[in-house]
Specification:
This is Radical SAM protein. The chain has a single domain (about 5-280), classed as TIM Barrel. Helix content is about 25%, strand content about 20%. It has helices at about 35-50, 70-80, 125-135, 150-160, 185-190, 195-200, 260-265, 270-275, and strands at about 5-10, 55-60, 85-95, 110-115, 140-145, 170, 205, 210, 215-220, 225, 235, 250, 255. The model is unreliable at about 290-295 (pLDDT under 50). The protein binds iron/sulfur cluster (SF4) (2 copies).
Length: about 300
């Protein structure tokens, strides 16, 4: 039987980007025409599958390797999905670099964005202008930054200038080892993102409950289903008529879970309660006081 709620993390083959962030392997990468065509065809198949899923409530988060929303196919897919009654939420990770006119075709209460500001790739004013365009349409979003030490001044400015109730998260920068941050850096980051330490230390997850593989799945362009992006074992194929039989509770097999996309689904952290409807796009409810509950 189809589960009542299913969240899908979708990642097709697209791995190109218009930005050149020095901390990213997909910087200025280009996809061949063939890859883009295959990606668009697989996306269309995924959208068609969602259209047929009228017996359950679906959340969808597009988590591309690169930047998907510079591609019209992804904009059209999100607009279409946002208008389906069975879609609770359709969200995407994005650098917010695209023109926003297409959002007028979307159901604003069901579309949302996980927006990352990349210093050096775009001026802060332009990024904030795009946030204001989301605000004007009543579209939910979170904003975040890669927590390199050199980004901390702009992080503080971002906090001052963003709408106060928009959650500003910081992803720990790990490439320079555990001693990247000084005590005053940590104090600043924690004052802005009270959940930073969960991301910085990760969660010791082996053997613990995690909803992935049961009510949350990772799906690639071929429809191959894994429990999450990190655990590579295949559990089925979305387009197999019997695929629901693969959905079952499973403890985490890995030592550590280090990304919000994953640990957000570990019930003992309470993120589903803390983030509520904004869990997929990492957005806290607007009226919430800063979260204090979750610990690593
Ligand atoms: S915007 Fe994202 S995908 Fe593109 S280069 Fe920067 S980090 Fe990588
Ligand atoms: S805890 Fe993280 S790594 Fe483990 S199964 Fe869940 S999402 Fe995957």
């Amino acid at each position: 039987m189809a589960p009542a709620h299913l969240d899908i993390l979708y990642r097709g083959p697209l791995s190109s980007c218009n930005y050149a962030c020095p901390y990213c392997p997909f910087a200025k990468r280009r996809d061949s025409r063939e890859t883009l065509a295959r990606d668009a065809a697989q996306l269309a198949r995924f959208v068609a599958w969602i259209e047929g899923q009228t017996a359950r409530s679906l959340g969808i988060l597009f988590t591309p390797w690169g930047e998907a929303l510079i591609r019209p196919a992804y904009r059209a897919a999100m607009a279409r999905l946002s208008r389906l009654p069975q879609v609770r939420r359709v969200a995407a990770q994005t650098n917010l670099s695209w023109p926003t006119g297409w959002l007028d075709e979307c159901a604003p209460e069901r579309i949302a964005f996980w927006c990352t500001f990349h210093p050096g790739e775009t001026p802060l004013d332009r990024f904030l202008g795009r946030c204001a365009e989301l605000d004007a349409r009543g579209i939910g979003y979170s904003v975040g930054i890669v927590g390199k030490r050199e980004h901390l001044p702009v992080l503080a400015e971002l906090r001052r200038r963003l709408r106060p109730d928009v959650y500003l998260w910081v992803n720990a920068y790990r490439d320079e080892g555990p001693h990247h941050y000084r005590a005053d850096d940590l104090a600043l980051i924690r004052s802005i993102d009270p959940l930073f330490d969960v991301n910085r230390t990760g969660i010791r997850s082996r053997g613990l409950a995690c909803a992935t593989g049961e009510s949350v799945i990772s799906v690639d362009g071929d429809g191959e289903v894994r429990r999450c992006h990190t655990v590579k074992a295949r559990i089925g194929n979305l387009y197999d008529p019997d695929f629901d039989a693969a959905l079952t509770p499973r403890p985490c097999p890995l030592a550590q879970c280090r990304c919000h996309i994953g640990y957000a689904h570990m019930p003992h952290l309470g993120f589903r309660e803390i983030f509520g409807a904004g869990l997929l796009e990492r957005a806290l409810p607007p009226s919430d006081a800063p979260p204090q509950g979750a610990t690593g």
